[in-house]
Amino acid sequence: MSTLLACSALRRSYRDILRQGPPSVQFVHLDGPTGIIRERMTARVGHYMPVSLLDSRTARLEPLSPDENGLVLDLRLPTEQLVLAVADRLRRPLPRPVT
Length: 99
What we know:
single chain, 4 helices, alpha+beta
């Protein structure tokens, strides 16, 4: 059984807390130009996060480190391609932790 959770775990410390749960937790970082994110946010209707917070959120972002189990995808890719990449990643066995 799998669970998919969407959140803005911008900092490593937040992701560390999430990793205290299931040992198989994986992260997906949709990465791309801030300008594109701003355009998409502006087009949203009724979203909880105002566009005015984008710059501060971007400044707080700590990208995934090489030792974090995750996948970085370019948000400029078509949605279908992003979904397929995530689904493919979830089907693969997890790497063994280094001891």
